[in-house]
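Hi U.,

Before I forget, here's the chain from the pilot set. I'm dumping it here mostly so it's searchable later in email.
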Amino acid sequence: MTLWDPKPQLRIKIHIVVPRQPVGGIQLAVRQRHHLREAGLQPVDFVDHALRCHDILIALDLHRTIVDGWEALASVLTRCQWRMLPTNLPPWRTVYGYFWRWKRQGVWERINDRLVQKVRTKAGRQAKPSAAIIDSQSVKTSEGCEARGLDVQKQAPGRKRHIVVDTLGLLLLVVVYSAGLQDVTGGFQTLQKLFEHMKHSVHNRWCRLKLTWADGAYASLVEKVRKSFGWKLEIVLRSDTTKGFVVLPRRWIVERTFGWFGRYRRLARDFEHTTSSSETVVYIASVRRMLKLATN
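Structure:
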C-alpha cells in the first residue's frame, strides 16, 4: 500500500506491509479517506502526521497495523460515543477492538514514550528528562463508573488525574484515582509508578531524572521520596502576601498541560467506565499533540 501526502512540499511515500487479503473494513475506509483528501474534500488530519512518524512504529513492531491503529487513534477523539462513530470511519467494534487491545498491551504508553524522546531531541534537549513536575486535577465523572469519590476541598464528585510532565510540558505518566484519595497518597503512588517505569532501582546512576517540582500538597513527601526513590522533591509555594493571579515558577508548566488536555471534549469530563481507559484517553491526547510537534 502506498500513501501520498497531498501537499507537494511534504510529499512522502510509505510502504506498509500488510497480509494479503481482500480489501475491506478499515483498509477500505483508509483508501476512501485518501481519495477524498486528493480531491480536496477533506483536510490532512493527524493520521497523516502519524504516518510521517513511521520509524517510531517500526521500532515498536507495529508496522503491520500502522494504518488500522491510527484510524483508532483518530476515532477515539471524535468526542462521541463508540456506537455513534461517523459512517466514513470503520465499524465501531473494530475501532474499539484496537483501542482495547492496544490498551491491554501498553502500546499507547510506549508510543507516548517514543514521541517524548523525539520531540525533546527536536527541541535540542536530551532524549531523557532530568527534571519533572507533578500535579493533580479533579474532574467529574459519569454515573456508575469505578473509582469514583468526592474531593472534599473542591466538593467535586469524580476522579483525580495525577500527571507527571517534563520541563517542556510533555506527558511522562498519568495515573487516575478516586477523587476521595488525598494528594499525598495519590502523589506517592504516582511517583512509585514513575520510579518503576524509569529508574527501577534507587542505586541506578544512569537515570537522568533527579529533580521533581510540586505544590504544597506534597510537602510531607519530600523526605519519603528522597529515601524511596533517590529524587529531590522541591516544593514551589505561593507567597502569603501575594494577591490575585501569579505565575508560579515551574508549576505553570503542568497547569498549561492540563489546559491543553481541557481542549478535548473527551477529557473535559471523565466519561470512561474504568480508570485504565481514562488513562489511555489522556495518553492518546498527548500523542496527538506530540505528533504535530514532531512533524511540523
